[in-house]
Amino acid sequence: MGSAEKTFLPLSYSREDLKQIIKELTDKNDMEQGGFRMLLTGGISENHFSPAEGKLFIFPESLIFPSEEKYNKGIKLLSLNYIRPIADIKTTNYALSVWDSMRWKKEGAEDVLYHHNGYVSESSRSNFFIVKNGTVITPDQDILLGITRKHVLQLIDKVEIRPVTLTESIEADEAFITSTTKVLLPVTQIDEHTIGNGRPGPVSMDILKKFRILEKEMSL
């Protein structure tokens, strides 16, 4: 709803309305592990450009989670000089990352790490964290404030939310990304640089363990 307000797209449903709609869709769809994707468009306007009466579509989807191997061995990110436009808004503007994804496949990478003027921001669909000397550090600018990021921050005792350079990311003891479907995925390589000892670190794995416990508590 926050993204709708920031993009000036009218949303004619309240939070309670949406909860009821999601409940009805949940009852009608048989999914063991699923979720709902909400897409709000600007509708059809007089000039076919500016937002008009918003149109909301809700799609039930089966969720695809990373393999256990990726949690055990970690993943590789490729740096990409880019900042998402209006990064604090969740949009469908993935054009560059979709185009660049062919490079990921060739180089065995999971995703990209956006950076600009020496500072990193986020991955294409995930938030980014590093660990240095036991302190968890995450960027504070040009990012989407993800829900999983929010919960992860609540589980951390020593955390810094500030600008993070690409250099210190490469030199970090640990790194990881977070999102709804990935939860917390360790990053063990950025470009040709190995992160830490090349294995998922203890701080990252401890946070993942705590998050799994939180998930179970929230589902009760």
Write a structural description.
This protein has 7 helices and 12 strands. It has 220 residues and is of the alpha+beta class. Strands 3, 4, 5, 6, 7, 8, 9, 10, 11 and 12 form a 10-stranded mixed beta sheet that branches. The longest helix has 18 residues, at 202-219. It is globular. The two termini are 26 Å apart.
Question: What order do the helices and strands come in, and which of them pair?
Answer:
Elements: H1 2-6, H2 15-28, E1 34-41, E2 55-62, H3 68-73, E3 75-81, H4 95-107, E4 111-116, E5 119-120, E6 127-132, E7 135-138, H5 147-154, E8 159-161, E9 164-165, H6 166-170, E10 174-179, E11 183-190, E12 193-194, H7 202-219
Parallel strand pairs: 3-4, 3-11, 7-8
Antiparallel strand pairs: 1-2, 4-5, 5-9, 6-7, 6-10, 10-11, 11-12
The proportion of residues in beta strands is 25-35%
Number of helices: 7
Distance between the termini: 26 Å
- Overall shape: it is globular
- Count of individual beta strands: 12
Q: How does the major sheet shape up?
A: 10 strands, mixed
Mean pLDDT: 91
Radius of gyration: 19 Å
Helix fraction bin: 25-40%
Can you tell me the residue ranges where pLDDT is under 50 for at least 5 consecutive residues? Answer: none
